[in-house]
Amino acid sequence: MVVSGAAGATGSVVGQIAKARGAKKVVGIAGGAEKCSEVVEMYGFDECLDYANRGSPSVSERPAPRVWTCTSTTSVAPSSTRRSPTFP
After folding, report:
1. Long-range contacts: 36-43, Cβ < 8 Å, 24+?
2. CA dihedral defined by 12, 34, 47, 15, rounded to 10 degrees?
3. Domains of the chain and CATH, by start
4. Exposed/middle/buried for 17, CB within 10 Å: 0-12, 13-18, 19+?
5. For 31-74, what is each residue's pLDDT tens digit?
């Protein structure tokens, strides 16, 4: 599995769940050597590709048979249009 934004809150959890559910290999994508190190050491990804380092090979340049890509998006409306949740 390839997880973009692997150092963020959502991406890091997605990768950990994938490992826990039996993914054979989880590859993260993050910006910077420090973030990539965190992705591998703290979150348990098998490896991490650094998109900020132009010398790092991209996901498309690496052999990866049977790869599933999981995409998740978190978006927030501008504060002027955001409504507070209502609870019963």
Report:
1. 36/7, 38/7, 39/6, 39/7, 39/12, 39/15, 42/12, 43/6, 43/12, 43/15, 43/16
2. 0
3. 2-70 (3.40.50.720)
4. middle
5. 999 999 999 999 999 999 898 887 766 555 665 556 555 555 55
